[in-house]
Specification:
The complex is a heterodimer. Chain A is an alpha/beta fold. In chain A, 18% of the residues lie in helices and 37% in strands. The relative contact order of chain A is 0.15. Classes of the chains: A alpha/beta, B alpha/beta.
């Protein structure tokens, strides 16, 4: 992990209540897809843990939903302002676990951490099938960015306003994907349904209310089949067979 | 310039100690900075058997603070003395404080006995704010009699200096502090967290799964200072001041109130580097305030 100051270069609304912030600064601790950052927001005691969507040598991006006062304050920040951020937290996805063909199933903001995962898998020469679930067309994020990676995302919406109508599990039925390993990120109920449905090995990126974000407070511990694990430091990515839903 | 302080014969190179529960077992932070800048480290609260603790959510944010209801998640005393302390000793030569919790006097005595016999442990800190299964459901820390009984039982089996960590959730903290001192406590740590709650108004239920939790963070500093001041002037044993400390100035303030060493708690969770920053900043603040020796200011107010 690395703590430092990051300068905002862009902060804009990209979907209903969803914002994307681009930041400039040291990204050396972001060495793996699925790691997260912890952002100190002026006036709030605890940091806001957010997945790193993507990064390069100059900076990184996060995508967040305005759900409370902290993310509301974050959305009011403008380019040029600086934020105190801890980067490179968590374990990240295990791309080596996938041999040739990956299936990624994400829901809502779960598209954010799997964006860099897809990028990484493709750079390793692996084939990626992506299913993106949203409530409606107003919630769609990163669709064109995934296309730029050469992926054709299968979009599914609950209300049918874009792509297929239904759940991500309906999309799995419809396309019958060919894969040797799967990755999932999104609401817990969705990830559970995905893990229950999909045959074969895979992993899910979990979420929990956190204190420190770096493994010292034990505030985000979950039960797993291999004992108590801290979502922030032992996770957030856990193997399917380890997870107790 | 002297930053060194002494707790019952144990020398700390400076008064800064990450508080129990906010710094894991120390090793979690060893890769982030050199722990040897710290005066001491108070390890995560440990019980006889391993515990999962409470269900999540365990954390609720508050204005200038937070609530935690971790519920003493720990691997048990045997793992602490056989694995955690020896591993930390390999990278840290400062003062190690084992923090012990229990649900009965027997459990406190057994764990403190084991901690006291562990080579790497310098001080044993006894957390008496857990439910007391022997005393009719009251917390040990909210009854002077029960607090004294724990202290006495622990002192009988532990040769290392024993600090009793007091709860602020009492009417008269001085009465309990004195009872511990009379029962043989070598020192006192205060304050533990203040019982609090937050409610999710959308879900119409408490934010933390355990309903109530311990409130800590910057907001509690004035309460901690007042209690440290009362206890330090009423008792003759050294006090480790704890509660709301977030910077070197707060350390000085806590010492002026009566603390010999100062613990930093919730602030570690928002800034994992804060203890290192405080240690580095302390001489600068001392210079500004014309303090040559920190020992001179202990309890001057």
């Amino acid at each position: 992990m690395k703590q430092g100051k990051y300068r905002i270069t862009a902060n804009r609304c990209i979907a209903y209540k969803v914002w994307r912030m681009d930041l400039e600064g040291d990204t050396s601790a972001l060495d793996k897809a699925g790691k997260f950052v912890d952002i100190a927001v002026e006036g709030f005691f605890l940091r806001r843990p957010l997945a790193a969507t993507c990064w390069d040598e100059k900076g990184f991006s996060v995508i967040y939903k305005k759900v409370g006062k902290g993310t509301e304050a974050l959305s009011r920040m403008v380019p040029g302002q600086e934020l105190d951020i801890i980067t490179g937290l968590g374990n990240g996805f295990d791309t080596a676990a996938c041999n040739r063909k990956a299936l990624i199933v994400c829901g809502g903001l779960g598209a954010s951490p799997v964006f860099s995962l897809a990028k990484e898998l493709i750079s390793e020469g692996k084939q990626v099938t992506l299913i993106q679930g949203f409530n409606s067309k107003y919630d769609i994020i990163l669709n064109s960015e995934f296309k730029d990676l050469g992926i054709q995302p299968v979009v599914v919406t609950m209300d049918g306003s874009a792509g297929m109508k239904g759940l991500v599990t309906d999309a799995i039925d419809a396309i019958d994907p060919d894969y040797d390993y799967f990755y999932t990120c999104g609401p817990a109920v969705m990830m559970k349904a995905v893990c229950d449905k999909l045959q074969g090995p895979g992993e899910a990126s979990l979420e929990e209310r956190m204190g420190c974000g770096c493994g010292i407070c034990y505030g985000c511990t979950c039960h797993t089949k291999s004992g108590a694990k801290r979502v922030c430091a032992d996770g957030p990515v856990f193997k399917k067979e380890e997870i107790i839903w | 310039m002297v930053t060194e302080v002494n707790l019952c014969g144990v020398s700390l190179k400076n008064p800064v100690v990450p508080a129990s529960g906010t710094f894991g077992f120390g090793l979690e932070m060893a890769g982030t900075y050199d722990l040897n800048v710290l005066g001491g480290i108070s390890l995560k609260g440990t019980t006889r058997e391993s515990r999962f603790g409470n269900e999540c959510p365990r954390i609720a944010e508050c204005p200038d603070g937070m609530i935690n209801s971790v519920g003493l998640q720990n691997p048990g005393i045997d793992v602490l003395v056989k694995e955690k302390v020896p591993a930390l000793r390999k990278v840290y030569d400062g003062t190690i404080i084992a923090n012990i919790s229990g649900f009965s006097i027997d459990e406190y005595a057994e764990c403190c006995g084991k901690a006291g016999k562990c080579d790497g442990v310098d001080i044993v800190e006894v957390n008496i704010s857990c439910p007391n299964v022997h005393g009719g459901g009251l917390a040990f820390g909210t009854s002077a009699k029960a607090a004294a009984e724990v202290t006495k039982a622990v002192k009988e089996v532990c040769r290392k200096p024993v600090f009793i960590k007091l709860s602020p959730n009492v009417t008269d903290i001085v009465e309990i502090a004195k009872a511990c001192e009379d029962a043989g406590a070598d020192g006192l740590t205060l304050i533990n967290t203040i019982l609090g709650m937050r409610i999710d108004i959308l879900k119409r239920k408490p934010v933390v799964a355990n309903k109530y939790g311990g409130f800590s963070g910057r907001a509690v500093l004035p309460v901690a200072l007042r209690m440290v001041n009362q206890v330090a002037h009423a008792c003759n044993v050294p006090v480790m001041g704890c509660g709301g400390v977030s910077c070197a100035e707060d350390v000085i303030e806590m010492m002026m109130a009566g603390a010999t060493a100062v613990q930093v708690g919730a602030e570690n969770l928002r800034n994992p580097m804060v203890c290192k920053e405080i240690c580095e900043n302390l001489p600068k603040i001392m210079k500004e305030l014309k303090i040559n020796d920190l020992r001179e200011i202990i309890g001057i107010v």
